[in-house]
Amino acid sequence: MLFFYICAKIKTLKRDIMLKKLLLLNLLFGCSIFTFAQLQKNVLNLATNDLVYDSVSNKIYATVPSANGANGNSIAVINPNTYQLENTIFIGSEPTVLAISDDGQYIYTGFSGSSTVRRFNVATQTASIQFSLGTDNSTGSYYVEDIEVMPGQPTTIAIARKNNGYSPRHEGVAIYDNAVMRPTTTPDHTGSNRIEFTGPNTLIGYNNESTEYGIRKLSVNSLGVTNLNVTQSVLSNFYLDFIYKDNYMYSFDGKVVDVSATPFVIGQFTNATGPVVYDSYYNRVCFASFESNGTITFKRYNPNTFLLFDSLVITQATGPVKNIITCGNGCYAFNTSDNKVVFLKDSTLGTPEIVANNNINVYPNPATDFLYIQSDFKILNVTISDLNGRTLKNVEFDENKVNINHLQSGIYLAQLVDINGKVVTKKIIKK
């Protein structure tokens, strides 16, 4: 009996020691473990080249190459809530890069199968105007390397052009209005392979194909686009891309560049290598980082301290990653070279707010005369404001109908308050 008593005591002691060790680990790493557990992963099997998100329709749009099969050479419509492919619309031969206007009205796509650009109408879900980029006498046809839509001007785009058979491939930056090119373009050979609008009349670009590694500032006017200045070797990687946010470039190799004056590196996100997106809701810089061992890790960083906030290893797909986007508050999506679209949802967001947002619908959008509201709860108040935050007076709201006939064409924000005090803001377009 004594022997069995001693054995039982030893087992109890071992169990207590193990529990203490687990408790200590939770105390040391509990925040990170809790955060990881809140990032829910889902995967859609689909070959894609690029992704954009439209907050008006709450849909992800993707270019689908011919390699995907019967629904290839299309723009795909993906629901970020159900993680399902809802539709595909034929767009052209081998669609590649995408760009969406800030009002969600148009999506522009370039192609590797043709020297063209095509516009997609989001409201009607149809492909519309298509135009050629022209040719060079020596290097042949121009193709799209990058597209950006001018802020506040959904029919004006900037295109970084390239050739497909020569080095260097750059063929200058051009501005197009409804398919008509403004006459002044930047020089070819060495220039801005990747571009971002920093304002309605300014662009920033990066030369990622020669050892100049130049960051260029460009000016846009009614005649076209010109180079203002170039700063060399601030970044120093070939085929590198970047995003722009509030006077900062966030490059795919983890560097942060202040471009408010002469560009210079002000910080580095450690062990970040891959496509990046700025999450304005959480104020985080997020990478779909392709690690040296071949795995993908989703990482969120503090943009002020450059320190890692959290990370999550993705086992459902393998890299490299092509592009990453936000797809609503606490939602991220990225596409990979093994034909996956990976969705991450941060479930730490309050459930009641999500339910309220999901169950309020404003239609039609865009609208001409009236907006109609469909809601699970009675709407008590509606206010309309412009993008500068100015509340507009004389907005007639009656039951489920809002009169916007007197508003000028443009983009507005509609704030709706229901009987439970929930506040939901919707972006609306007045035609």
Description:
With 431 residues, this protein is mainly β. The chain is built from 2 helices and 37 strands. It has helices at 2-38, 351-358, and strands at 39-45, 51-54, 59-64, 74-79, 84-90, 95-100, 106-111, 116-121, 126-132, 135-136, 140-141, 143-149, 156-162, 170-177, 180-181, 194-199, 202-206, 215-221, 224-231, 242-245, 248-251, 255-258, 264-268, 276-279, 284-290, 296-301, 308-314, 321-326, 331-336, 340-346, 360-363, 370-375, 379-385, 396-398, 401-403, 410-418, 423-430. The strands form 10 sheets. Strands 1-30-29-28 form a 4-stranded antiparallel beta sheet. Strands 2-3-4-5 form a 4-stranded antiparallel beta sheet, with no helix packed on it. The protein has a 4-stranded antiparallel beta sheet with strand order 6-7-8-9, with no helix packed on it. 33% of the residues are buried. Residues 1-37 and 350-358 have low confidence and may be disordered.
Topology diagram in text:
Elements (H helix, E strand, L loop, with lengths): L1 H37 E7 L5 E4 L4 E6 L9 E6 L4 E7 L4 E6 L5 E6 L4 E6 L4 E7 L2 E2 L3 E2 L1 E7 L6 E7 L7 E8 L2 E2 L12 E6 L2 E5 L8 E7 L2 E8 L10 E4 L2 E4 L3 E4 L5 E5 L7 E4 L4 E7 L5 E6 L6 E7 L6 E6 L4 E6 L3 E7 L4 H8 L1 E4 L6 E6 L3 E7 L10 E3 L2 E3 L6 E9 L4 E8 L1
Antiparallel strand pairs: 1-30, 2-3, 3-4, 4-5, 6-7, 7-8, 8-9, 10-11, 12-13, 13-14, 14-15, 16-17, 17-18, 18-19, 20-21, 21-22, 22-23, 24-25, 25-26, 26-27, 28-29, 29-30, 31-32, 32-35, 33-36, 34-35, 36-37
Main beta sheet: 4 strands, antiparallel
Regions with little confidence, pLDDT below 50 for 5+ residues: 1-37, 350-358
Kindly report the oligomeric state of this protein: single chain
The coarse silhouette is globular
Beta-strand residue percentage: over 45%
Beta strand count: 37
In what order do the strands lie side by side in the largest sheet?
A: 1-30-29-28
Which structural class fits the helix and strand makeup? mainly beta
How far apart the termini lie comes to 89 Å
Helix content: 10-25%
Let me know the average pLDDT. 86
**Radius of gyration from CA coordinates:** 25 Å
